[in-house]
Amino acid sequence: MWRVIFPILTSILMAAHVLFHGAGLAASICVVLLPLVILVRRPIVQHALCALFALYALEWVRTTLVLVGSRMDAGRPWMTAAVILLACAAFSALAAALMYSASFRRWFSRADA
Prior knowledge:
By secondary structure, this protein is mainly alpha-helical. Helices cover 75% and strands 0% of the residues.
């Protein structure tokens, strides 16, 4: 189940983002530990994680718009920041989409574990 790396890395990226913006170490730890709910094998967890990673992607897009706008207003270079932040958004969207891959569907539909 190599696909589990995407939710983990997505959460680590968001934890770094949260920590950078001053939300604190506790918030970052919570964000990193959140993918552990993958161990709860219920379909509702699958949907919740998909929604969470989609929200992460939207947060990366929002951050991109804010940062690029402020850099453009200040006359500073903005292209590199936009590419990096949009790559984070795409990675988060991929993690959300992978929640509905065949392997994750099988994992969350098992009621015997």
